[in-house]
Amino acid sequence: MEGEYRYTDNFEVTSKMKEDYDRLGYVIIRNLLDQEELDLLKKTLEDNDGITKHAYELSDGIDRKSKMALWMRPGNDVTGLLARSEKVAKTAEMLMGHGEVYHWHAKLMMKEARTGGRFLWHQDFGYWYQDGVLFPDHLSTAFIAYDKTNKENGCLQILQGSHRAGRIDHVLTGGQTGANVERVEQLMKHCPLVYVELNPGDCLFFHSNLVHRSDKNDSDHRRWALLVAYNTKKNNPVTKTFLPEYFPLDMVANSAVRECTNFTDMAGKEFLDPRNDHTVNVDAK
Question: Which Pfam families match (predicted)?
Answer without folding.
Answer: PhyH
